[in-house]
Amino acid sequence: MSLKVLIVEDEMIIARFIEYQLHSLYTGLELHIALTIDEADKYMEQNSPDLVLCDIQLNDRLDGIELMEKYAATKLFSLIFITSYQSKSSIDRAAALNPENYIIKPLGENRLYAGTHMVMQRLQQQRNKNQTVEKLKTLTPAELNILKLIALRHTTKYIAESLFLSPYTIKNTRHRICRKLDLQEENNALLSWAIEHQHLLKF
To answer: Which of 4, 49, 89, 151 is the S-S candidate for 194 at Cβ 3.0 to 4.6 Å?
Structure first.
């Protein structure tokens, strides 16, 4: 599952620079550039981006703040504004949309990284959590119950005795769980995974 990122920037060279830098800095991104309001509208109507990087000063019928106002109430996305000046009125207008950051032009690799890193890190963590939750949904109630016991560091023998099952059955179940979670069956991978993600298991 890729993070969808929309870049709204009416200067092609700058838009391509942002695209190149984001590809260089982060993995698992699906990037799209909108050079005009119409292109941004078309994308937003057909997609739900995770993050929008939007230039405030667009040479179009709307500025970036007005454009984002159109979608703030109906779309759930993180927002970073790009601006070449910091007038109080534009910052006050932008602040009403609760952007997660501002990046001031002229853009450079370090400035772009500083402006996106914390937001991207949070989005990637949320994406990983969502993927993990989806994998957990593939487990049967019996498998989930055994996974919870593994998370509590119980041995195969203990789990078998407490559930009135054979150790062989528990071992087979562990193998099935590993396959569903895409884990290697070595070096206590399942135990490590269960301990790391026990906050997602409803005890």
So the answer is: 151
